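Course assignment 3, question 2. Fill in each field.
Student: A.L.
Task: Predict the tertiary structure for the chain below.
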Amino acid sequence: MVDYGMGNLQSVAKALAAAGARPVVTASRRAVEEARALVVPGQGEFGAAMRRLRRTGLASAIRRAIAKGTPYLGICLGLQILFDRSEEAPGEPGLGVFRGVVRRFPRRAGLKVPHIGWNRVKSPGKRKSDYYYFDHSYYADPEDRALVDGTADYGVAFCAAMRRGPVTAVQFHPEKSQRAGLALLREFVRSAC
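Answer field:
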């Protein structure tokens, strides 16, 4: 688990342990580059996250790990930083692993921003939908729609989960999503290890 000072590391570590992993929390670039799998949780502001990741050298370590095929699970902000930029922090580049923009939810009558609470995620090719816990004001808008592995609706249909090769990322919080979240973490642990 990458510790860059922004995220609920303890609850994610406990959930990963319950899913069968032995999580190691680290801020070491070398450990990130040599990890068998990476989990990047995050809560907070996109610009502050990217500044910390660049200042510590973790941004380039994460990019190198992904480029060599290390399994990656991004949670909430850990999904958003994979893209080029965010409306939350204009002029602050993301990791640029995937092309796209992180957008703020539009103002809609009756909908509060941030989007907090349970929402259904629909995955292409799956008949069953599961509910997960969200807490966010921004969502990823990938240029390549084939990245999208699950969508939810909050005034606009948005990317709730994405997948490409060894990279999986979710906008929701699996560590707070009870049975469905634990199942997702178990799937990641099995595929990564």
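Instructor remarks: The radius of gyration is 15 Å. The chain has six helices and ten strands.
Grade: pending
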